[in-house]
Design goal:
Layout: H1 2-7, H2 12-15, H3 18-25, H4 31-35, H5 41-58, H6 61-71, H7 77-92, H8 97-113, H9 122-143, H10 152-165, H11 171-197, H12 208-219, H13 224-241, H14 243-250, H15 257-270, E1 272-274, E2 279-280, H16 292-310, H17 313-322, H18 329-343, H19 349-366, H20 371-381, H21 393-399, H22 406-429, H23 431-435
Antiparallel strand pairs: 1-2
């Protein structure tokens, strides 16, 4: 499965189906045991998140949110870049970072086109365009790390923690770590791009506000569909964040993140838009855009991890590392994080998470280190691929604009990769122990 995922010999979702065939035939699992992880509650958490995102896209609510947030940044070039990055990161917390980048790119290009009539220098124009494009891609990658549903590696990690260690990671508790590290990394990225590497030194863009106003006027007044989607989205997000308090108030532990996610998704399908025409906020046909392959990938990864655990492969790897002498926990975390980060520059971060996180869990158990301290930085590192256009879809999308050279992306990316490793090691020694 690893070879197939790395070489893309078959679609990653097809590779993820192999355990259903191979594990029963080799006597590792029964068919029931091999198929059970494909219905893990974490998969339904992500499915519900996808449905919420689809409804936002269906009615252009995400675009309205983006334009209104960017409108607050004014006409200062660095302020515009900051606005784009904050907006991209916020939306990427809730919907696919690919979809977020696809939406933000044309808005960014409209702003860049203003430079053609502006009095800025040619060097300043190029640097502004480069900074804006890099800012959008990097913010999309970073923003997804703030919530469990923001990016597939997070969901896979939560699944492994539950299945292999019987440790539940709640939406609110993850957010208390994910959001601060997201904001810190976003701030560093903004400063590095705009102040250190590619400062444009342009005073202002006179017509940028008009571009945003034109796009907003094209959307028209907020529709009742957008209002209803927004209400369901906000209620779902609040339920995730306040789940512990709600359970305490009701004196129960029945409410969990997966139930909340699916309930939010179901509401999108049953909330009427036009009763007479039997139209609803979301029609089932629209779920053709839902990335079913990613959900299968989670199932295959969870089954593979269970098989590795049952056959003691994870334990053997952990004991081998433990047998190599005393290892400094900080050096171990730095090494594992660096390995994940630089490997994800070359292959799917979801597949890599599915392969690598169970091994890291085995290492942490063998060395008697809290698995959270090792696995969470490693999982976050899977989303911090900044160097190559092929590393993540957001990188590839902005690279297609023609405004970024590979050497420009690599120059910024290598610095951000090193900064990310240092930041994640610090996180493993400070915030994660404080929360967990």
């Amino acid at each position: 499965m690893v070879v197939w995922w790395i070489t893309e010999a078959a679609p990653i979702a097809v590779t993820a189906l192999l355990p259903i065939v191979l594990f029963p035939l080799t006597g590792i699992f029964t068919v029931d045991e091999a198929t059970a992880p494909y219905a893990n509650k974490i998969i339904f958490l992500f499915m519900g998140g996808f449905m919420l995102g689809l409804a936002m896209e269906r009615h252009n609510l995400h675009k309205r949110i983006a334009l209104n947030l960017i409108r607050l940044t004014g006409t200062n070039p660095n302020g515009i870049i900051l606005g784009f990055m904050l907006t991209t990161a916020f939306i990427s917390m809730w919907i696919s970072n690919t979809a977020t980048t696809v939406m933000m790119l044309p808005i960014g290009l409209s702003i860049i086109n203003l430079l053609g009539i502006d009095q800025a220098s040619e060097r300043g124009k190029k640097r502004f365009a480069l900074s804006l494009m890099l800012g959008i891609a990097y913010a999309a990658n970073i923003g997804g790390t703030a919530t469990i549903i923001g990016t597939p590696p997070n969901v896979a990690w939560v699944g492994f923690m539950g299945d292999m260690l019987n440790t539940e990671v709640t939406f609110a508790k993850y957010l208390s770590v994910g959001l601060p590290i997201c904001l810190i990394m976003l701030s560093i990225t903004y400063l590095l791009i705009t102040k250190v590497l590619y400062p444009s030194r342009i005073a202002r863009l006179s017509d940028s506000a008009q571009v945003i106003e034109n796009q907003l006027s094209e959307l028209g007044k907020i529709s009742k569909a957008e209002k209803r989607v927004a209400v369901i989205f906000v209620v779902t997000a609040l339920a995730w964040i306040l789940r512990g308090s709600i359970n305490s108030w009701l004196d129960t532990n029945l409410l969990n993140d997966s139930i909340i996610a699916i309930a939010g998704g179901i509401l999108m399908f049953i909330t009427p838009l036009e009763i007479k025409k039997t139209k609803f906020l979301l029609e089932w046909e629209y779920t053709s855009k839902l990335p079913w392959g990613i959900l299968l990938l989670f199932g295959g990864g969870l089954t593979l991890a269970k098989a590795m655990e049952k056959s003691n492969i994870v334990q053997v790897v952990g004991e081998t590392i433990e047998g190599n002498g005393d290892i400094s926990p900080i050096l171990l975390i730095a090494g594992l994080t660096a390995f994940m980060l630089f490997m994800t520059e070359l292959m799917s971060n979801v597949a890599l998470t599915v392969i690598f996180v169970p091994v890291v869990i085995g290492i942490s158990v063998s060395l008697n280190i809290n698995p959270m301290y090792l696995t969470m930085p490693v999982t976050l590192a899977a989303s911090y691929a900044f160097m190559m256009p092929i590393s993540t879809p957001p990188n590839a999308i902005v690279f297609s604009s023609g405004m970024i050279r590979i050497k420009d992306m690599m120059r910024a990316g290598i610095l951000l990769n090193v900064i990310a490793i240092v930041l994640l090691v610090i996180l493993s020694q400070t915030l994660i122990p404080a929360i967990y």
